[in-house]
Write a structure and sequence with these properties.
By secondary structure, the chain is mostly helical. It has a domain at 19-51. Helix content is 43%, strand content 0%. The chain is built from 3 helices and no strands. The protein has helices at residues 19-26, 31-38, 42-51. α2 crosses α3. It is elongated, with a radius of gyration of 15 Å. The N and C termini lie far apart (52 Å). The model has no long low-confidence stretch (mean pLDDT 87).
């Protein structure tokens, strides 16, 4: 019996970028959209930016 493709776990996708490229994108793309693209929650993406010392725009 073949495994159900919906139940087969997949490896996470690795996205490679530079700090500078991410810094530039944060200022032109909403954080929620970038978080979704990176497969993270908004809070997880914000934590990534803090760790990499990338300032985020003020919400609003």
């Amino acid at each position: 019996m073949d495994p159900d493709p919906q139940e087969t776990p997949t490896a996470p996708t690795v996205i490679r970028t530079t700090r500078l490229a991410l810094y530039e994108r944060v200022w032109v793309t909403p954080v929620r959209d970038l978080a979704r693209e990176f497969g993270l929650s908004s809070g997880g993406f914000s934590a990534l930016c803090r760790r990499e010392e990338i300032p985020l725009p003020v919400q609003g």
